[in-house]
Design a protein that fits this description.
This is D-glycerate dehydrogenase. Residues 6-318 form the D-isomer specific 2-hydroxyacid dehydrogenase catalytic domain. The chain is an alpha/beta fold. The chain has two domains: 5-100 and 290-308, Rossmann fold (3-Layer(aba) Sandwich), CATH 3.40.50; 102-281, 3-Layer(aba) Sandwich (Rossmann fold). The protein is built from twelve helices and twelve strands. The strands form two sheets. Strands 8-7-6-9-10-11-12 form a seven-stranded parallel beta sheet, with helices on both faces. It has a five-stranded parallel beta sheet with strand order 2-1-3-4-5, sandwiched between helices. Helix 7 links the parallel strand 6 and strand 7 (172-176). Helix 5 crosses helix 7. The longest helix has 19 residues, at 290-308. Bound molecules: (2R)-2,3-dihydroxypropanoic acid (DGY). (2R)-2,3-dihydroxypropanoic acid binds at residues 54, 76-78, 101, 286-287. (2R)-2,3-dihydroxypropanoic acid (DGY) binds at residues 54, 76-78, 101, 286-287.
Length: 319
């Protein structure tokens, strides 16, 4: 009997496919660039399992173009790159990689918050440009983070890890979620409505998954509610923020700064944001520590192994 075919559509780690080798025929794309949908269908023709990463789009066209497909294992906790409705229609299971990147991503949210509040990007560029002549009382003044009120929109695993770190900074934490969490899960944070959070928080962190319901949850009206001294951090997904409205708010000083790891239409970044000196921008590296990325790849492959062994994949996201 022929062995199942697993297509790994993007370079992972050199030995990531090892647990699959005794169980399946593995097709490995050695390139580090995502395949466009038409190319992915060609590349994965005849496969039963597909391993994708955050940058790989797996739309209905791919799912419907691969009739034998049974499983899509995403390397990433967010899976908005996969058309899950199309997967459900085709009876294809989808898995993600929760937990293993929680702490690394929470660290990065803090790097962006501290960096944007204390203007590390702007002042570093200025120093490298050879502009630093003398120490100055008023040089690169930023906003306090310690003792401030932090607003977290999206109090899932990563939101809670961000909140835990806030206690070390003596901060009060507000959060907004669709539902209020039981006290033991809220890390001492207080649930408030989104508008109240935007009005009251000194700094706001977005960490919700992207879906049509969360598209532009922060746009011009929401930015208008924030304090002029506030920092906005987006560590969730591009599309949660209206990037052009944000760039305008930054340019007009309606908020102080932003720390952004994700962008609408990334890897393209709105030119207006690139032109905003008070935006600290990083290329979707929230989970990019060696150990977190390794654990993400291993968990994605473990899901495929579960399926090959006839078990329920351990981190299945759809029915
Ligand atoms: C995730 O896991 O969703 C990350 O954004 C990918 O690095």
């Amino acid at each position: 009997m022929s062995r199942p075919v697993v297509a790994i559509t993007r370079r992972l780690f050199p030995d990531s496919d090892q647990p699959l080798q005794s169980r399946a025929e593995v097709r490995l794309n050695p390139a580090d660039t995502p395949l466009v949908p038409a190319r992915m269908v060609e590349y994965a023709a005849g496969c039963q399992a597909l391993v994708a990463t955050a940058g790989c789009q797996v739309p209905a066209e791919v799912i419907e173009g691969l009739p034998g497909l049974k499983l899509i294992a995403n390397v990433g906790v967010g899976y908005n790159n996969i058309d899950v409705a199309a997967a459900n229609r085709a009876g294809v299971m989808v898995t993600n990689t929760p937990d293993v990147l929680t702490e690394a991503t929470a660290d990065m949210a803090w790097a962006l918050l501290l960096g944007a509040a204390r203007r590390t990007g702007e002042s570093e560029r200025w120093l490298r440009d050879g502009k630093w002549n003398v120490w100055g009382m008023g040089l690169w003044l930023g906003a306090d983070v310690h003792g401030a009120t932090l607003g977290i929109i999206g109090m899932g695993r990563i939101g809670r890890a961000i909140a835990r770190r806030a206690s070390g900074f003596g901060m009060q934490v507000l959060y907004h979620n669709r539902r209020e969490l039981p006290a033991e899960e809220s890390q001492g944070a207080r649930w408030v409505g989104k508008e109240e959070l935007l009005r009251s928080a000194d700094h706001v962190v977005l960490v919700v998954p992207y879906s049509p319901a969360t598209h532009h949850i922060v746009g011009a009206p929401e930015l208008a509610l924030m304090k002029p001294t506030a920092v906005l951090v987006n560590i969730g997904r591009g599309g949660l923020v209206d990037d052009r409205a944000l760039a305008q708010a930054l340019q007009e000083g309606r908020i102080a700064a932003a720390g952004l790891d994700v962008f609408e239409g990334e890897p393209k970044v709105a030119p207006e944001l690139l032109a905003a000196p008070n935006a600290l921008l990083t290329p979707h590296i929230g989970s990019a520590t060696s150990s977190a990325r390794r654990a993400m790849a291993d968990l994605a492959i473990a899901n495929v192994v579960d399926w090959l062994d006839g078990k329920r994949p351990r981190t299945l996201v759809n029915p």
